[in-house]
Amino acid sequence: MYKFLRRYKGAVVVVALLFVSLFIFIAFGSNTTLFGKPRGVILKITSPVFETINSLLDDVISIWDHYIYLKDLKEENEELRRHLRRISTKYDNLKTIYIETERNNQRLEETLGFTKKEPYKLLPARVIGTDFAPYSSMVTIDKGRENGVTEDISVVSVSGIVGIILNVSDRSSTVMLLNDKRSRIDVTLQENRTRGVLEGFTDGTIHLSFVDRKVKVKLGDVVVTSGMGNIFPKGLLVGKVSKVNKPKFGLFQEIIVTPKVNLKSVEEVLIIIR
Question: Stretch 242-256: mean pLDDT, rounded?
């Protein structure tokens, strides 16, 4: 106990003075002559203590109010951030829908323009399924026998030829693409009018076969349909020569053609119905 009083004697004195002051105010509330001077002395001694305590209390209250204000402000900021994120998500969704709609409209306008220029009947269709197996490349479209589609008729897009109708059901059809290993199309090199056969290979490339090795073929030469075979009309764009190799032995060149149409991302096609 002695050690405690010795260590905290200053605090004990202050507390004692406070209790004495409180006792005097309670017991001798009236300013009598007998206790007037003691009260004055006590007030003089304890006033600085009370002022310090009041100042500390004011600081504590101010800090607490500031803390509450910052806490409320932080919660409001978090709510604003959540609201902005919701608005940003809605904006991104609307932007995506808008861009996709614009692209669809553009493709449809190009398709309609194509149908107006060509002399034969073109039936628009959408790709609803794909099958890029190791040894075949096919897509399924949403038009079939009910729409006048038959087997062995050509399928094109606004960019160029796509393939041939392989199988037909009532409401859908299977299209064999140009790079299918079974595909064979009679074509012509547009510049020198040399004919050849466009063949799909198992690796997905398209080769122009049976072109005499003496014929001058260069990179970028345009390949179009020849009109032979009674499937594709004459003069439709196929693609461009992307590789030429003249082997030391053999009669024909090795030519690879890159199709104009991106066969892996085609979405709308046109079926040529005569």
Answer: 89
